[in-house]
Amino acid sequence: xxxxxxxxxxxxxxxxxxxxxxxxxxxYGNPFGRSALNRSCGAAxxxxxxxxxxxxxxxxxxxxxxxxxxxxxxxxxxxLMDPASFxxxxxxxxxxxxxxxxxxxxxxxxxxxxxxxxxVTVVPxxxxxxxxxxxxxxxxxxxxxxxxxxxxxxxxxxxxxxxEIAEIAHAGGALMHTDAVQAVGHIPVDVKDLGVxxxxxxxxxxxxxxxxxxLYIRRGLLPEPLMHGGAQERGLRxxxxxxxxxxxMGAVAELxxxxxxxxxxYEQGLRDHMIGRIIEEIPGAFLNGDTVNRLPGNCNVTIxxxxxxxxLVRLDQEGICAAAGSACSAExxxxxxxxxxxxxxxxxxxCSLRFTLNYMNTREEIDHACxxxxxxxxxxxxx
Length: 383
Fold this sequence. Notes:
The protein has 12 helices and 12 strands. 39% of the residues lie in helices and 13% in strands. The strands form 3 sheets. It has a 7-stranded mixed β-sheet with strand order 2-8-7-6-5-3-4, sandwiched between helices. The protein has a 3-stranded antiparallel β-sheet with strand order 9-10-12, with helices on one face. It starts with a strand and ends with a helix. It folds into 2 domains: 2-9 and 260-382, Aspartate Aminotransferase, domain 1, CATH 3.90.1150.10; 16-255, Type I PLP-dependent aspartate aminotransferase-like (Major domain) (Aspartate Aminotransferase, domain 2), CATH 3.40.640.
């Protein structure tokens, strides 16, 4: 199998499983217990917290563990917009700004809040998937409480101008959240440079285990607890820690920080080679997303006239794993909301494929995949 769907999930990075195994067997204590075994697990959780904080330029007390990106996004969107939240801002009302190309983990909570009577403004993106800071500025109101714009798009790979948007949000008295699920571990991410108040990430998107993620909450902000119960996560998210997964995410954070620049350059080379071959060898094919400011491993293309589901079936038969868009919407019958938001027709969106590469892919794999793509395109067009 040639795996080109790393945007959906990644394989465990080498060494991560070895770091996790002791906490599934010998080191099985509860991090909040008082015994030596329990204290050892608690120390492992805090060590992982510091490694993750270092990866994103945060203080370790600003990192809160969750089950993944969806939970982190929901925590910010739903709990921050709650009028009872943020004790120092009791006078705030509820206006939320999100972009049209956000992941459903942001858009669906926004829709939920809208049903409850909150005001939600959805700002557009241009043809490359870029959210214009000027559009955010125009949407700001006196009662805007939160702006949420992702750092890198999960479908077309466009990297958004989050720093500029955060400045606009803060100038208008609002807080700034970014969904960085596709970015963390792949491109340099520093919460201070970005100027964000909240940042979401998920371990399995950058070589860690599934079922674990984190939310960065800027020091001094105290949202209402996500889950009520015990004192875990400083009382903001009750529940026994998933120690093996947290340790694994900490291990991969450390490894990603060490190798990111080298792997980023390598992935960009593979990506550009793949894009070039597809555009050159498949008539009518074109790239979706920004040509420069995009994730190093993202290749999203439209091949007009070829329905993507049929294409994916043929690719799967040839041992190539790809996607039509976000894995979280794989069962949806509607065209990609990201592609339609950037100006693609429903028909064009239905003819689009997403290939997401990483450092484990080889030039030989990419060339073989491109050969198969070209041949399958010719085959399907004859049918």
